Amino acid sequence: MFAMGKSDPDVPFTILSETRKRWTITIASLVTFVSPVSANIYYPALNPLAQDLHVTPFKITLTITVFMIIQGIGSLMVAGLSDVYGRRPIVLLALLLYMGVNIGLAQQTSYPVLMALRCLQSFGSSTATVVCSSVAADLVPRSERGRYMIYSSLGVTLGPAIGPIVGGVLTQYLDWRSTFWFLAIWAGIMTIMLIVFVPETCRAVVGNGSIPPARWNRSLV
Q1: What sections of the chain are H helices per DSSP?
Q2: What gap in Å lies between CA 69 and CA 88, rounded to an integer?
């Protein structure tokens, strides 16, 4: 039925209302905030981290390079999984991993642990970002996506812009650990928002929304 519906002008691209569609895309976009902000919020804390962990600034800078490498690899590993199992389970697992890793980063006192957790942080954030970036494509036909750019690009635009500012304020008035607590809290908020409000959007799983997903994969609302 859905395959026929794609070429049938009487079948809507999605059954979600305009308000629900924009709300879903906006929440998914806010999830994509975690990847750029994780990289940028870290910069003001480099020197305090080097001092507390008793390593050179060069070694701390290496954690940025590793973060970017894993960021590219992680997105390649999970892109296909979300097309098979759906967006919500992959994103929720990625956010839970990301939240747990940030809690670990906030409490670690060892450079090797910092490096390992930064790799996991990069994997979790890039996974959530690449999957949530597909939500707009699930809900909006290509010819109309320009009207939704303000919603779909919100997270990746805000991350690089406010990440260093937030990181600088937190590092100056609290300490470098507070930056990771901030990221963990943000991941927790986004996890709750996804569980409560965001429906499964993968067209291979729910079509235009008229095919109900598995019961465990439904939003509370």
Answers
A1: 2-5, 18-31, 34-40, 46-53, 57-85, 87-107, 111-132, 135-139, 149-152, 154-173, 177-197, 203-206
A2: 25
> Which pLDDT tens digit goes with each residue over 87-136?
999 999 999 999 999 999 999 989 999 999 999 999 999 888 888 888 98
Q: Which of 135, 161, 131 is nearest to 148 (CA)?
A: 135
Residues contacting 78, CB < 8 A, separation 6+: 90, 94, 127, 130, 131
**Domains of the chain (ranges plus CATH)?**
16-217 (1.20.1250.20)
User: Do residues 34 and 125 touch, judged by C-beta distance below 8 A?
Assistant: yes
CA distances 56 to 49, 189, 200, Å, are 10, 35, 46
The pLDDT-based confidence of 57 (bands split at 50, 70, 90) is: confident
CB atoms within 10 A of CB 68: 11
CB–CB of 36/160 below 8 Å?
Answer: yes
Q: Is 164 exposed, middle or buried (0-12, 13-18, 19+ CB in 10 A)?
A: middle
